[in-house]
Amino acid sequence: MSSEQDFRIAVLGGGAAGFFAAIRCKEMHPHADVVLVEATGKLLSKVKVSGGGRCNVTTAAPDRQFLLQGYPRGSRQLKGLFHRFDNHDAMDWFESKGVELYTQEDGRVFPISDNSQTIVDLLIDQARECGVQIKSRTRVSALEQSGSSSWTLQTGSTPIIADKVIICIGGSPKRSGLEWLETLGHDIVDPVPSLFTFNMPGNPITELTGLSVPSAMVSLIGTKLHSSGPLLITHWGMSGPAILKMSALAARELADMEYTFEIRIRWCGDKPEEHLRSVITETMRSSGGKQMYSYTPFEIPKRLWSFLLGKCDFRSDHHWSDLGKKGINKLVDMLMNDTYNVQGKTTFKEEFVTCGGISLQSVNMKTMESKTAPGIYFAGEVLDIDGITGGYNFQAAWTTAYVAGELAS
Fold first, then answer.
1. Which of 13, 125, 173, 224 is the 20 to 30 Å CA partner of 332?
2. CA torsion sign, 199 to 201 to 204 to 206?
3. Which of 328, 325, 308, 306 is nearest to 317 (CA)?
4. Do 395 and 337 share a structural domain?
């Protein structure tokens, strides 16, 4: 074994997981030679654009059980890891380094600067202060075992020899991007997109582009999958947290459907049918003289309300007192069972993640070390772990990188 001064750890990938793992390596093993290798000239590029340029660093989920619900894939394996480093630990870490955070009503956590550059600068500065060597524009073409306890990273110039390697290269859109890791004995789960918006070409609802509904429930017809949250109507279809969550929950199913499917929308969220009928009945009693198109008792934007009434074939001069039993049934059904055909997806670039990657069966999920290639560790999106929108994917990166960085030292 190398002496402490000669011990080298190579971290592949200059994203969130790569920087966090490299920093943790130096915290645990300050005399080790830690080198971070990034293929491109861009460091922390996804951190830079995340959250609309504000960087949604994590979620304020109140406890670990709630936190685990945000991971369609990997939740069982993350359970133990979160005991080592969870979202509250992450918030404490950033604030201990001088970055003040705040939590929005929806649970997303941002730097108080509302500027992702704050997080980018912090991670780069922390890495440099710890003594991490950063090698950008250095592409690794192969990873080969050299001797019984070291690895050679083949680059376009001088090879890098390392005692331990932490792979944090992010998600690959194609299986071919992971084949070099497959040759080392790792099983690959075919990657498919997650966190994307729904295309509805030619649907009249796209004329309401820019309109947002505060609380809707979206269901994938033919499955038991559903999601809730704000919904945004765009010029190409639908987006917003409710849609992005559904795209994550149903990533595999939607890929199998070749992104042609049908969704059902409940425009009043999880409000039960009895509640809707009660509100409508009370409105007929107390506001019967008002025209339906000009007055809604529900938290639905007026333009969408008019659109839904039009789908119900109600006249423009229809009064609430004119509704009748059949009208009530028709309106309730529209509010609870409005259906739309989806034909295709659009990448939500700020949040895009990959479902799939290195199979968790190939990794010791207590240490993040490869089961087939000792000395190789994994962290971040390269693993078959992904979460819903709202800071969950960054949290998986912080957690897996923290454990890999600590135990690879």
1. 224
2. positive
3. 306
4. no
